[in-house]
Amino acid sequence: MAILYTRNIQGHRVKLELIEVDPNEVTLDPTNPRIGFSMKQLGPDEQSDPACTLLLTSQEDTEELKRSMILSGGVQEPIYVRHDLQVAEGNRRVVAMRAAKEEHPDDPDLQTMPAWRIPEDTPEDVIQDLLSEIHLGSVRGWAPYEKALQMRALVKSGLIEAEIAERYRMTASEVRAQIEAANLMDRMYFPITKDPTDAEHRSKFSYFLEFIKNGRIQSHCEVMPDLPQKFARWVRDGQVSTGMRVRKLPKILDTEEATRLLEVEGFDAAEEYLATHNPREQELYLLLEKARTRLHDMSVSELVEVQSSPERLAILQDLQSEVENVLANVRRVKGAGTVRRKERRASLAR
Asked: Parallel, antiparallel, or unpaired: how do β-strands 12-21 and 3-9 relate?
């Protein structure tokens, strides 16, 4: 007797049927976010099931998943397949199960795997909603880049950004930034890498998301139209290798020479230049600026505390005295330098 389950997917009631499938008789999804970009680089005739298998095997830790299936006696959680047995969700498990079956052809637990079959009349946007519920809002989710691709797929299916945001507890601007960051990677970054299929590249998604979200960086894009291309190259070549460096990038872009050093010598050289030429980038002056700002922002209650606390007042008075001493020393050094210059000029005149 068939097992049926009605799932409510964003208000649509979909009757799913639990079936057993041979992993070798289902077909993989070439648009799967884990391999979608790599598949698009192939010709139409090359976008085959074997190509999907190869990409998933090389990109993901399929070997470990295969061993887990062998030890646990197959797949425990059903995958999702369309009516024609194309995998909608669970591509990596199918690849791992195929490998396990090939390695243990006589093991009865590795011959088939459970799958929820989606009815043929299910609209594509509902199927995308199902995938989103599984991967955007669950613990067993995709990596950030793949989630962004799923959001892009929802937009292509007809949803607007505000609808996606409402469903997955985001803002419309956050959804837009996610999609723009994925588009930037696909357009500018992956094509210039040595091996676009390398899974390590997808881990750089957070850099591109920060690039899109950072208002100061986007302001620089208005006067530097080629900044997105440069940024992609900096990420590829390791000049920008952490999220912190992306956040520091606006300060470098504010200075023409620092930007030049980033291009020629790297991020460290650009930061060193800023530290030398911009006092607010040096530790001492950064601390002084923070202290000055904090003193300026003292509340009335804090001023009352100082008035009634000899210890607090003494700290402020010591700080005032030390600042006055430093300024006096600076004036003396400046005066001594002026005297020496005058003496040199007089000597030369004689």
From this structure: antiparallel
235 Cβ contact list (under 8 Å, min separation 6): 189, 204, 207, 208, 241
> CA-CA distance, 270 to 251, in Å (whole number)?
10
Single-letter code of the amino acid located at 288 = L
Cβ–Cβ under 8 Å, residues 85 and 25 = yes
Q: How many residues does the chain have?
A: 350
What SS3 class is residue 210? helix
pLDDT tens per residue, range 130-184: 888 887 765 455 678 888 988 888 888 788 888 888 877 789 999 999 999 999 9
Residue 18's nearest CA partner among 130, 112, 96 is 112
How many angstroms separate the CA atoms of 225 and 19, rounded? 53
Category of 142 on φ-ψ map: left (φ > 0), alpha (ψ -120 to 50) or beta: beta
- 349: part of which helix (H) or strand (E)? helix 310-349
- For helices 227-237 and 215-223, what crossing angle results, to 10°? 120
pTM of the model: 0.61
No. of H helices and E strands in the chain?
17, 5
At residue 118, φ and ψ (nearest 5 deg) are -90, 135
The two three-digit tokens of residue 12, written as one number: 């649509």
Question: Distance between CA 325 and CA 321 in Å, rounded?
Answer: 6
Lowest mean pLDDT of 21-30, 135-144, 162-171, 314-323, name the range.
Answer: 135-144
Helix (H, G, I), strand (E, B) or coil at 80: strand
Give the Cβ contact number of residue 194 at 10 Å: 7
